[in-house]
Amino acid sequence: AQSVTQLGSHVSVSEGALVLLRCNYSSSVPPYLFWYVQYPNQGLQLLLKYTTGATLVKGINGFEAEFKKSETSFHLTKPSAHMSDAAEYFCAVSNAGGTSYGKLTFGQGTILTVHP
Amino acid sequence: KAGVTQTPRYLIKTRGQQVTLSCSPISGHRSVSWYQQTPGQGLQFLFEYFSETQRNKGNFPGRFSGRQFSNSRSEMNVSTLELGDSALYLCASSFGNEQFFGPGTRLTVL
Asked: Which secondary-structure segment (H or E) carries A95?
């Protein structure tokens, strides 16, 4: 079984400040890890993903995340927050390989607020 | 390419009724997954279809069912609706290990 824990259901930062959204996962098999963003009344948009290879992955809109196997973490960061980053962010995990790509297990989400 | 489309976008039903939601995947994608999103339970996996066969299933009662057609379009059905079925239902299509989500269908059960 897999699970995802996102630490902090709400994170508030000032515009221009560092954004750090925390995600820890549990998986008995090598995981694929994802970060999605959801704006109000919309579906989910993929920010970035880790499958294999380089553990520091870069995504869209200046976001990046680092896969740390020893810490079972996949935290999302952005050096400088922008007002348009205000949204809800979801960390997700799926099994690497096999037929489990289509089943994502999500964390509870973190709402990011950006203050002027 | 056009993205994932879901119809209808909004739906209001009453308890005991049934409902069918539709999802058209991105052209060439053969896998379609469904998720339920509620404020209390978050995003939960319902099921996944690949080449017209259910490949993975989440922990939902039998009232929730789905199917996939030969053109990869998918439908999900919820019978005997309950108030707790009110949610945003998201469909995602995938090619390889990345899922692309549609805008969702907002179901309200009165």
From this structure: strand A87-95
Would you state the pLDDT for residue B68? Answer: 97
pLDDT of residue B95: 82
Residues of chain A in Cβ contact (below 8 Å) with chain B? 32, 36, 41-46, 49, 51, 90, 92, 94, 96, 99-109
Q: Which of A44, A51, A109 sits opposite B101 (nearest CB)?
A: A44
- The amino acid at residue A3 is S
Burial of B89 from C-beta contacts in 10 A (0-12 / 13-18 / 19+): buried
Q: Is B104 left (phi over 0), alpha (psi -120 to 50) or beta?
A: left
Inform me whether the pLDDT recorded for B54 exceeds 80. yes
Strands (E) located in B1-110:
5-7, 10-13, 19-24, 31-38, 42-50, 53-57, 64-68, 74-78, 87-95, 98-101, 105-109
Mean pLDDT of the region B89-95: 94
